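Hi C.,

You asked whether I'd gotten around to modeling the 521-residue construct. I have! Everything is below, sequence then structure, no commentary in between.
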Amino acid sequence: MNTTEFLNITSLIAPDRPCVVFEGKRYSFGEVADRVNRLANGLQGMGVQKGDRVAVLQVNCNQFVEIYFAAARIGAIFVPLNFRAKENELTHMLNNSESKVLFSGDRYIDMVKSMQANLTSSPKLVSLDSKVEGMENYDDLIANSSPEEIFTEIGDDDITILMYTAGTTGLPKGVPLRHNAFVDYALQNVTPVDPDIQETNVVTVPLYHVAGIQAMMAAVYGGRTIAMMRQFETNDWMDTVEREKANRAMLVPTMLKWVVEHPDFDKKDLSSLKVITYGAASMPFEVIKKAIEVFPGVMFINAFGQTETASTITMLGPEDHMIPADASEAEKEKKLNRLANSIGTAMPDVQIQIWDEDGKELPQGDVGEIMAKSERVMSGYWKDEEKTAKTITADGWLHTGDKGYIDEEGYIFLAGRGDDMIIRGGENISPEEVENILYEHPKVADASLIGVPDPEWGQNPRACIVLKQGETATEQEILDFCKSKLAGYKRPQSVVFIDELPRTSTGKVQRKVLREQYGQP
């Protein structure tokens, strides 16, 4: 089975059900299937063949769904570009992928024209919005193309998406993802389309991110309506949930924090929500604790994964977010610890091990690198054997770059990225553990922990603090707060107050940036 069958099956079973709702327009599954056929024929007319790359530079929109499935239908490879990337990064991605066609939204047309002379593959340009001289127009391409269905020989192991990671150093790396990576996940974790059950999923995570793609794929396979938002804005998100009576949503921790702390939260009817999935960054304990309180009856899922793993490989499920009232104190403490620090257990089709620096598996409870193995893991980076050799072992184990350990029941606990781990006097300090304590301070809105070089201890932890609006605090106040809550070596030795934490588009704190700005003694 390949992903093109997701849309084929759903459009036959529920053709009149809305597939995508976007900015006041509704497109049924049957209508999307027709537009996909037309676009696939249009792409073939532009010379696109099996294996060719088709790129998109645009914020979330209904065309994303159509372009992906049209490309997949002819066996081409979809390349969703990070619209926040700089011009040199985009030029690299387009040249590295040798994209044959580039779809672009209006806001990026000038940048595309600026890059054009440096694009070695000379992609054909298609405007998604306005009619632009020298570019094909998207709506015209669909209107003028045949609705006949295209049949292409597509193998389960064929690459369907080439996604570029926003690496912390160097230019983005291309991650080729196969059809079976998404099919295997859907078959094991998503209920297939039911003509009598309709759900709506709000999609705000950018579709150049693997979590957004996974949400889109799951929705089409499951016959769920996608309530698409260009980008996340808290009030608009709540209005969308209320208007569309949405049942599901995927949020990064920062988004969830903004929602539960919004002054108009209690004025919105969000009672239709049944499932909220979160991930892509560390979740502060106080945020998830509050979310559970203000969303009674909602099932929360912490999904952990990477681009290289085609998204989710471990999950902290709904049952792990519930603490029975009659539970013993020991059981409550264990549950709270997992809720605060665990990314759950491995998915059924994934193996997880913890390795030391010599590549040996560590015993239960010891901290090392989290290693993953699955049919869904990429086979290697696009055109980069050197990085592939450093990331994938000969027998298929992926170096995730994350530190962690596994407890006696198979729950995996994060202990920071390999380069984020702070080592003071030989003792490892997990930034996430200390940050969860900092979040408990009533004046703290956001926090991150970095290591500062120290001649005696090697490193000392420093807290980077964003205070809540209107609040003031001193360094000593923060240090004193940590005294009764953390072991001596884990406590921050200094504090800097800043306006905001630098984050990636998916909400991950960029500790590298913090270290560059505030990591000097």
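If it helps when you're writing up: The domain at 4-231 is CATH 3.40.50.12780 (Rossmann fold).

Thanks,
B.
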